[in-house]
Fold this protein.
Amino acid sequence: MASIKNLKKDLNYIFSDIIEECYVWQLENSDNKDKAEPIIDGAISSFDTLIEKINTRKVENLSAHFKGIMTELEQNVNDLRSEIDAL
């Protein structure tokens, strides 16, 4: 398993890319800027939730805990990407 430090960096890069993609879409579609705001808010909320789970100290099975985090990350990213594609 990768280090917690690298996992946090990966989260930061992934969600930053999603937010940046929304900002680019807003620049290209100045008439409908508000459509991307819920996606940005969702990305920030997902990031905060996952960071909170990563920082949880009292976990019985550390490996299963981080596998669950990775599964949740994949699901959140797929959901956000599909919302971006629907714009």
In short: DSSP finds three helices and no strands in the chain. The radius of gyration is 15 Å. The chain has one domain: 4-86. Helices lie at 4-28, 37-54, 62-86.
